[in-house]
Amino acid sequence: MRPKTIGRTLGIGLRVAGRVAGARLAAQAQSTGQLHPNQQVAGSRTIHRAGGQAAGQVSHDLFRGIKGFLRPFGKVGHGLWLEVVGVFFLLPVLIFGSAMWRTRASWNHGPQHGPFLISTVVVVLFLYLAVTSFWRASRK
After folding, report:
1. What ranges do the domains of the chain cover?
2. Residue 43, helix vs strand vs coil
3. pTM to 2 decimal places
4. Residue 101: closest CA among 115, 87, 90, 89
């Protein structure tokens, strides 16, 4: 993502989270002040329940705002993770590729036919995993 897009996303996410949290807190303060005095004794559970629900809603909205704030970082982190995994998938390719090169003379039938085939399978498998990991990282 471009720096301008990340900055806009972060700024918008923070503004939305602040507005939502402020609106919830204002609604909570307004709703607790509307009880009739006769209902305060019998309705103390209602007050606590309403306060708990408002606090739960505020925390839920705050979580959504933080999640929106961190979303661009998650996308960048996921692409970076795919590239790191691709590099680690290339390490067995290098190791088993050299073993495959050493035993290439007995590819058809020879004293080292088994190690050659095993090295070939491992090289092809890990090369496929590395290439697809880099390809998925480039698509993100």
Report:
1. 3-139
2. coil
3. 0.50
4. 115
